[in-house]
Specification:
mainly beta, Neuraminidase, five-stranded mixed β-sheet, 4% helix, globular, 6-blade_b-propeller_TolB-like, signal, Phytase, B-propeller_Phytase
Amino acid sequence: MKRTRSLCSGVLALGTALAALTAPASASAHPGAPLPSVHPRAETPTLYDDEEGGNADADDPAIWRNPEDPGRSLVIATAKEGGLRVYDLAARPVQSLPAPVPARPGDAPGRFNNVDLVHGLRLPGGRADVAVTTDRGGDRLRVHRIAPGEGAAPLRDVTDPAAPRIFSADQDEANEQRTAYGLATWTDRRSHRSYALVSRRERTEIALLELLPTPSGTVSYRPVRTLRLPAAFRLPDGTSWTPCGDPGELPQVEGMVVDPATGTLYAAQEDVGIWRMRADLAGAPRLVDRVREFGVPAVHDEETGECLPGADPGFGGTRLAADVEGLTLLTGRDGRRYLLASSQGDDTFAVYRRDTGPRTPYAAGFRVAPGRGVDGSEECDGAAVLGAPLGRAYPHGLLVVQDGHDDTAEREGTNLKFVDLGEVLRRTGL
């Protein structure tokens, strides 16, 4: 097939064959206990996905720490058709970068979906930190060099104009929007090569791409391999189950993060759960937790566009409500390492241990509730944590979460909430 040839030199395929359910439900130290709440200190201006608001929609953040002046660090966030937005630690706008315009009338416009950082990427002019973004409209990666000394324009586009499409053979295929979606970056500590792991919208593929600086100072990439997660599952009662979606859609992945210490990729398949696998995609993935709705039969209602669930057979997890969305890493006060996941379906966040060998047990959970004149987080897509001092404002680090339902203005919009990481660690006991 054309998309296979354009995508990879080798494929590790689990395909749509039925996957055996081997991962146990996550541990529950205090089942049914109310979760603690943490409170944001600041929020970014609301973005609106409509003609009046410029079709901008806050989605996925990344936190860049300024090593020379941590108090002047930046939060870089995708705004979908609104491009990229850059904020200071007071959540004030610093820079707005537009998404690419359509190449031809009728083509999909640029749509920046997820963002992650690469530190110390080797460029012809020396090493630099860069922000890597998935452009869903063009089915490409976009790369921006971070140069804080440039004041109001700290990000500069250094994408190679000849960078290839990731999953599509051409723009006509990209217009179907089964294109680059979720994203995580990874630098292999042995080879020092940097990669992007990219998921595909409405499909189960994850692609591994090596980032390649060019002699002209731009950045391109080449496909290495892909992995295809299951789209159907064998349940303990011997039946099979496929998550319900719109006709033709498979259960997609968006939230992803790589543990750099172990080279482990965590990937959130939205209607299924959290997978753990090697970041080089060379091994078999393991499902380490499931959404509560896992195994629940459902029928798509064409009239409403909704999935109507049947009886719950009880095969789901206990901590995640579909969709499971943003994933990010944090370190506790005792030095233990954790994975944080956005449980979008019930507006909570689940935290798992990631330093216990093959297991990934549940450790804690919390909500981001209103406080200090700032509302809480609902329907959260993206989240990012940086556990290092960021000046006087965030001496213990920062958690940034997306609010997908900001209704404080006259119309509904989206924004980002800034939370003191020290409060998260205290309230959860991590």
